[in-house]
# Entry
Amino acid sequence: MNGRILIIDDEPHNLNILRIFLNSLEHEIFTVEDGKEAIQMVKDKAPDLILLDVMMPEITGFEICRQLTSQCDFDIPIIFLSANAQKEDILHGLRLGAFDYLTKPFDLDVLERKVEIALHQKAKLKSLRKDNKKLAKLVYVDALTGLYNRAYLDITIRMIEEGTKIFQAAMMVDMDYFKDINDNYGHLVGDQVLKEVANTILSQISSEKDLAFRYGGDEYLVLLEDASSALEIADRISKAVDNLKVSLAPQKQQKFSVSIGLTSNFDPTSFEHMISQADSALLGAKNSGRHQIKIR
# Structure
């Protein structure tokens, strides 16, 4: 298994031996002799493994390890390479969170195997975290539409109340006469229409700044970071849905439309009030004949 390996050692001779050997195993090698530069090098290079000398001037390998492992998101295995073979030093290095501790002079075959094991563990951890992210996405994403669900909306509300996330506008988007679609063509067709509308909404908002939720049934909630373009976005969504073409039966297609309620009355202390305003605007759009945008 090939990996990105950072070697931290103040002895050029040791660095050269390790670099030549590990290069021969087709690893990508980075080196640094100054302990003070080592931590920044870790941030810059994001290695898969660190080989760290203990005895270094100004800052020891133990201190470098302590600073790195104290970071909450640090997950790079560290193997100490040291002439200090005393039990106390070995235990100290392992207590600091090092993956392993090899004493100099070390056997290159043993080093090769230790490096292989460490890289394998790093790869397994990376895969596990990737799987966890996928699971988290399943928990917070509506299975039908691919939009965020009410569970993630609860998290978003907490972020808004804590001031870590700010939205300036909200819109409620509701399908017009959706019950007729289900009644006339069946729920499978209705589900397809819901998916198409969700994709349409996502195509019109910023994936980096804005959020879209399936609020319930055929109703969607969109939170916008910038209120200045809110009406334009609502208009684009409405027109894009107008142009949707979903096959309902052989040789038959039907047009769809949405009603939209929009508000920019943002109050971080009462997110529910903002939703209520958007909902009230939506009700106004529905009561005025549907297929329109109302602002409150």
Remarks:
- The longest helix spans residues 108-140.
